[in-house]
Every structure is written in C-alpha cells, then in structure tokens.
Amino acid sequence: MRTIVITGGTDGMGAALARHFLSAGDRVAVIGRSRAKFDALLAAVGDPSAVERAEFVAADLSLMADSRRVVAQLTARFEQVNALVLAASYIRRHRHVTAEGHEASWALFFLSKHLLVTGLAEPLRASGRPVIANTSVPGAKAEALDFDDPELTQGFTFGKSNAQQRRANELLGILATRDIPDLSYVTWGPAGLVRSSFAGEVGAGMKIAATILGPLIGQQPDDAVRPLIDLIDNPTPGRAAYRGHKPVPLVVGLHDEQDATRLGEVAEAAEDET
User: Fold this and answer.
1) Which of 226, 133, 119, 255 is nearest to 183 (CA)?
2) pTM value?
3) Between residues 195 and 252, the one the model is more confident about
4) What is the structure's pLDDT at 4?
5) Domains of the chain with CATH codes
6) What is the DSSP string of 209-229?
7) Which backbone phi and psi does 261 adopt, to 5 degrees?
8) Is the pLDDT of residue 274 over 80?
C-alpha cells in the first residue's frame, strides 16, 4: 500500500487527488484547514475502508510552526512516503504579513514547501521510487527571484510575487533531487481552466473565470488531475515540468545550481527566525 501526502487536499484538485488515491486503495494523509471538508471528502469516496486509510492533519501552512508540526506528525506516523503532492493554495493579491512575520504568500507557496520537502526526505528516500508533485505552474523566468528581498518588502505586486514563488519551486527541485536518490520531481499545472472556488483574495478577472467561464469551459477537478495521477503512478527519476499531459521545457538559468544552493540558505535562515 502506497502512502500519499497531499497538502491542500480538502479542496479543488487536491481533493480530487485524495478521492482518487483513496478509491485506488492507497493510504492518504490530507493536510488542510477544514475537518468538515475532509469528512465530506471521505463521504464522497463511499468506501468504508477509506476511513482506515485516510488521515487528516489540520494546519495553516503559511505558518512555519504548523509546517514543522506537520513534518513531525508525518515522520512519526509513516516510515515511507511514496508521493508528496504540494497543492495548498490561497490567493493574496496584496502583501500580507503572518503572525510570525513572514510575507504570507512566500510562506505558503515556498517556505512551507521547502520545510515539507526537506523534512520528509527520509521517508521519501525509504520508499524507493518517490515522487514530489508540485502544482506550482512551471515557466517563470530564470531572473524572477529577488534573492535580496524574497518577501518583497519593497514593490510588492501580485504578478511579481507569483513569479518569485514559481521560480523558487523550480529551484527547489534541484535541491530535492540532490538530496533524494531516484526522486521524480514534477512541477505541474493544469492544461486549462479548472472549475475552482479560487480561495483567497480574488481579482475581477478570476471572479469572471470562476463564475462565468468556469462552468462553461472549465474542467472538473477530477478530469484536470488525470495527467498528474499518471505522473505519480509512473514516476521517472529527475526533474520535469508539465502542463496537463504535455511536457514543457525546464527553465534554465545561467547559475541554477548556485541559485538553488543560495535559495536553500535563504529558506533555512527564514525558517530559523520562527
């Protein structure tokens, strides 16, 4: 029986993945903020055995203390983790500082992922053919990351914040594949619009997409994640990037290895502060 860990596993594509893997007979640890949504997810699976194979871990992953607690709980519970799916999302169009003093989007979309990837390295290694599936859409420019101000204390915009997170998560793949032999690290985004609630501060464009275009042309989350399920079921060691089923080129910068090392140091320094 495989063990699948899914952040953001109570909503949207994360919930679709959780339902699929529970229906397939896997053990699934769902990390989210709503126990009620987790209970609804289990009810939707409709398999009494899923209750024994499912575990809910309540956490706000924009908080480093919660991310550390999640790592501690999962490493105590599971000797092996076959797949780690990083799908937690909460959109913020404006700069917001958490109670721990970090910019919330940077904390949720990168720092928590760094903590989970590094903290779960041992159980991932133990599984033999581990997969990390990161739903940070690939393709940000190599120069998108400001190492001197990653939390954007100056000149914050939603676009700049989003690009930084995406580039950081591609570099995280370099760190992860250095540390975990035979790891398949995939940055993945859906091929098109997905019917989603877009949790968070949603701008006018996203509201239109969610309320008008989504029901007309958007994919159901269960359909949107099928390509990602295939990648998790048939892992290929190394780094890769996909939009839906389609592989896309990895972004290559002039100093990727050095940038990845520097990013790891930045992340560890930020995590040590809280």
Assistant:
1) 133
2) 0.92
3) 252
4) 98
5) 3-272 (3.40.50.720)
6) IIIIIHHHHPBPHHHHTHHHH
7) -60, -45
8) no
